[in-house]
Design brief:
alpha/beta, seven-stranded mixed beta sheet, six-stranded mixed beta sheet, 27 strands, globular, disordered N terminus, binds glyceraldehyde-3-phosphate
């Protein structure tokens, strides 16, 4: 096993040859934007200078090719109108930094957006309350086929803005262009699947049930006003994973974009306005810590949906004046562990762990955030892991084949460094050459071993490119780690023996909500239930479950008598009701 100190500098600093990774862009200048991991195969230690040189200078050709014109958003969608905004604004700084002539780095300014206060957010909330009108509004009473048509119209409008939205995801959060495009396409699929699921749900509800002399017709109905708060790491996909089903079920929404990932919603304003009745979708901008509790305190929010931290969710639930009336659908903290047993296929385990730990720089709620490896195979596993990791490329998000990209803010880099330094001070070592080296928003991932309970990394969710490893002799130690965790989302288990897998899985399914056998943790396919125990989630998201989460069953019932039958038949045959009908949506 190779153990390297935290790299600060190297006498052999050099530019990486980009050409391999550039693929079809071979004709462009070869400097910068990508550091090929193959250089690290030869023991090369990543330096701060190397990372600095990965950022573009102002005149770089790639910047000209991939840059976007700055977006100065001065409009807000409220109550069906794209209103002019004359209030305070906030600059948007990209994770991508530009290198000055003197080597200094500065974050690129890519635009600005409204940054409102509580008063402005209340206008959005009141618009949603009025549109819902205690369940009597146009949208909550609209027949499901018409709601579906509205959503299809929105989807067409959304598809038309793919190029702008994906570029904005890349520039606002530093996600690779390919992953940004995949996020968009996955979201389009999600909307499409949601439309199909609502059609099926409505069709299966289109029948009377007769039980114990009572006849009833049961359908799912909306809950009211939904306050929707999405995360920065999947600003489009995870936001829409709650916003779209909430709308589809007839609710009216106030949506506050995440701190990083605001401008990407601007191109979608018109699609929202054109597809839905006034007040059904309203945007609120500003400091979440200020405006969100104020919105919840009014008691006008019926559903809180937040993909974020359990600390914030706890606080918000408490400020609602009648918390019994507040439904919460939450995707929260996670610290998913990988357990590597001695009989595991170590090559497979290493590649799945690498994917799990470092896709989008480890900024996924489902990321593997602790690797627990059996003592007998720890050296071999680490060798396999480091060999694979050394092949990852780091650089700018538009570079083809790129894996590691800038973090969304300098503060995030500071957080990673603090967690790392805490572990090093308590006896851990960095196993990969140059691990933990930082320059601006680039942070070269660090594999940290051995991680022990005294270190923050042992329990804290790092949500970034740090890979803590601990070893165990007895599998019960690994199982105890999961059982005593504050989190309970998923686990990855690498093993081959069916008896061992069965015994461990039987225990783990009661600790978490998904046990992944010989593969990384993940949310998809989106039709599978996505949830967690303890501080990891409340409610379940999947294409079908989300529709249930954002609705409640309501029914019309009567005694099963001739007069009742006559009345119900007349309503159905005369097509007088949007609720009491037995028609199917084909
Ligand atoms: O950030 C949490 C996401 O829901 C993870 O989704 O597993 O598809 O990356 P993913």
């Amino acid at each position: 096993m190779h153990i390297f100190p935290l790299a600060r500098a190297s006498p052999h600093a050099r530019h990486a040859d980009n050409r391999r990774a550039r693929g079809k862009h071979r004709d462009l200048p070869c400097f910068a934007f990508v550091f090929c991991g193959w250089a690290l195969d030869f023991g090369y230690v990543m330096t701060c200078d190397d990372l600095t040189l990965l950022f573009p200078s102002e005149n770089d050709a790639d910047l000209r090719e991939f840059a976007i014109a700055s977006i100065e958003q001065r409009t807000v969608l409220i109550n069906g109108k794209i209103c002019d905004w004359a209030g305070p604004i906030k600059d948007v700084l990209s994770p991508v930094m530009v290198r000055g002539r003197d080597g200094s780095l500065s974050q690129m300014r890519i635009g600005s957006h409204p940054f409102g206060n509580v008063e402005a957010a209340m206008v959005a909330l009141n618009a949603a309350v009025a549109a819902y009108d205690n369940g009597r509004g146009t949208w909550p009473t609209m027949p499901v086929p018409e709601r579906i048509k509205a959503m299809q119209k929105f989807l067409a409008g959304m598809r038309a803005r793919r190029a702008e939205v994906t570029r904005l995801i890349m520039w606002e959060i530093g996600k690779s262009l390919l992953d940004s495009e995949q996020e968009f396409d996955r979201t389009v699929d999600y909307v499409q699947q949601t439309i199909e699921a609502v059609r099926n749900l409505d069709n299966t509800s289109s029948q009377f049930e007769i039980v114990e002399g009572v006849i009833g017709l049961i359908r799912r109905t909306p809950l009211g006003v939904v306050l929707c708060l999405g995360p920065y790491n999947y600003p489009l996909n995870e936001t829409f994973a709650t916003l779209i089903p909430a709308l589809m079920m007839g609710n009216c929404v106030v949506f506050k974009p995440p701190r990083n990932g605001v401008l990407l919603f601007k191109p979608l304003q018109e699609a929202f306005r054109n597809a839905f009745p006034p007040g059904v979708v309203n945007f609120a901008y500003g400091d979440g810590a200020e405006i969100v509790p104020a919105l919840v305190e009014t008691g006008k929010v019926n559903v809180l949906t937040l993909i974020g931290s359990s600390r914030v969710a706890d606080h918000l639930k408490k400020v609602h004046p009648k918390s019994n009336r507040l439904r919460a659908i939450l995707g929260l903290d996670a610290k998913n562990a990988a357990i590597i047993m001695p009989d595991a296929d170590l090559s497979l385990a290493a590649s799945e762990c690498l994917l799990g730990a470092l896709s989008f720089n480890g900024q996924r709620c489902t990321a593997l955030k602790m690797l627990l490896v059996h003592h007998d195979v720890i050296d071999s596993f680490i060798s396999e892991f480091l060999a694979r990791m050394s092949k990852l490329t780091i650089g700018m998000p538009w570079a083809p084949g790129i894996t590691l990209t800038p973090l969304p803010s300098l503060q995030k880099v500071t957080q990673m460094t603090a967690l790392l330094e805490d572990a090093l001070a308590k006896g851990a070592r960095i196993l990969n050459p140059g691990g933990g080296t930082a320059a601006g928003t680039l942070f070269y991932p660090a594999v940290v071993y051995p991680v022990i309970p005294a270190m923050r990394l042992f329990r804290e969710e790092q949500f970034g490119p740090l890979i803590p490893i601990a070893s165990f002799d007895d599998v019960d130690v690994a199982l105890d780690y999961v059982a005593t965790s504050e989190h309970g989302q998923q686990v990855s288990l690498s093993a081959r023996d069916p008896y061992t897998i069965a015994r461990i899985a039987d225990s783990l399914v009661n600790q978490v909500c998904r046990v992944n056998l010989n593969c990384q943790c993940q949310r998809g396919p989106d039709v599978f239930p996505f949830t967690g125990r303890k501080d990891s989630a409340e409610g379940t998201l999947s294409v079908a479950d989300a529709l249930r989460s954002f609705s409640i069953r309501s029914m019309v019932a009567a005694k099963y008598t001739d007069p009742s039958r006559e009345i119900l038949n007349a309503i159905v045959e005369g097509r007088h009701s949007n609720f009491i009908h037995t028609g199917s949506i084909l």
